[in-house]
Amino acid sequence: MSSIKHPPSEELLATALQYMARAYAPYSKFHVGSALLTDHGKIFGGCNIENAAYPLCTCAEANAIANAMSERVCIIKEILVVTKTQTPTSPCGACRQRFCEFAEPNTLVHLCTESGLCETYTFEEILPLPFDKSKLNL
After folding, report:
1. Most exposed residue of 8, 58, 64, 123, measured as fewest CB within 10 angstroms of its CB?
2. Model confidence over 45-59: pLDDT tens digits?
3. Distances in Å between the alpha carbon of 99 and those of 29, 53, 92, 107?
4. Rounded to 5 degrees, what angle do the CA atoms 27, 48, 79 make?
């Protein structure tokens, strides 16, 4: 499924790495950083924030989306998720659904490790049957 379509920019990866370093993960020790490139050419980052009450945790990807939406930027052209793992880690299902609201089928999703190993997919590849606004019959 993965084929390198377009390597992430150094700026996108650097932003995600900076945010990963800010992650608050005292329970899982699983630090995640994310960066989004918007249609306006702006990059927004986010990190995961854990809570002793686990349902209150916030994923790095959700944090990055919130940062972008705080400036009313809402079309994602590229997504990068970075972790301190040996192999790239995919976003959780909830974050894929969050992306669905702001990404397009051909939006690039870069899954990277801290050491620089990256896999690139399209959004359609990581969420092939999205539940989106077209399903709501509005």
Report:
1. 58
2. 999 999 999 999 999
3. 24, 24, 11, 10
4. 145
* CATH number for the domain harbouring residue 109: 3.40.140.10
Is the residue at 42 inside a domain? Answer: yes
Model confidence, pTM: 0.93
What's the pLDDT band for 3 if we cut at 50, 70, 90?
low
Catalytic residues: 61
Q: What residues contact 15, with CB distance under 8 A and at least 6 apart?
A: 33, 35, 43, 45, 80
Q: List the domain range (segments joined by +) for residue 86.
A: 10-130
Length of the chain, in residues: 138
